[in-house]
Design goal:
Helix content: 25-40%
CATH class of the largest domain: Alpha Beta
Strand content: 15-25%
Strand order of the largest sheet: 3-2-1-4-5-6
CATH superfamily of the largest domain: NAD(P)-binding Rossmann-like Domain
Number of helices: 8
Distance between the termini: 18 Å
Radius of gyration: 16 Å
Order of helices and strands: HEHEEHEHEHEHHEHE
CATH topology of the largest domain: Rossmann fold
């Protein structure tokens, strides 16, 4: 849990420097997206996480346990408000990366945290006219780990709900369930 949270903290604190009362959208409700949302909320931002309808049961609904607002992508396709100060793109979807920029306020910041299997196309004219800042964040630094330990301790109880523990003998099932997005964070117990 420390490593993915360190990735999120690096993006939120060092790269983007999220501040109190900023309006933040996190696109993607996997473990990195959820941790980015938690880290931003911990800094006092007003945070929402978006995901697909199919993500609700095993992934997106967990954000509510941390007091984080959620939105279903399919429900916001028609009415996409353009009022976020900052968007963290954590979904890995080239479509989400290309269209997320439309939801930023003028002068907003778009932070790429995910890696992409397909080419991403950005609406450059929208970026220029909107004076959009593009940042990218990758991995973490050593001091991010201590901050991750502190945040894991702070949210110890609600974090228990996002973990699915598998015995070593079921290691392949853990990977399969994760790939099929049946669980948010599988952990293999080595006993």
């Amino acid at each position: 849990m420390t490593e993915p949270l360190s990735v999120a903290l690096h993006a939120v604190q060092k790269v983007a420097n999220v501040t109190k009362d900023q309006k933040v959208l996190v696109q993607g409700c996997g473990i990195i997206g959820l941790f980015v949302a938690i880290a931003a909320k911990n800094r006092g931002a007003n945070v929402s996480v978006s995901g697909l309808k199919k993500d609700w049961d095993s992934r997106l609904s967990h954000a509510k346990k941390f007091g984080i607002e959620t939105e279903i992508v399919e429900d916001t396709l028609i009415n996409k408000n353009k009022d976020f100060d900052m968007i963290f793109e954590c979904s890995g979807s080239s479509l989400a990366a290309g269209t997320g920029l439309f939801r930023l306020k003028k002068g907003g910041t778009f932070v790429l945290v995910s890696l992409y299997e397909q080419e991403v196309k950005f609406p450059v004219n929208i970026m220029v006219r909107g004076e959009i800042n593009i940042l990218s964040s990758y991995a973490y630094e050593r001091n991010d780990f201590q901050q991750a330990f502190d945040l894991l301790n702070k949210y110890k109880e609600p974090l228990k709900n996002i973990i699915s523990i598998y015995p070593l003998a079921d290691g392949s099932l853990a990977f399969s369930d994760s790939k099929q997005q049946k669980v948010l964070k599988p952990i293999i117990k080595m006993v």
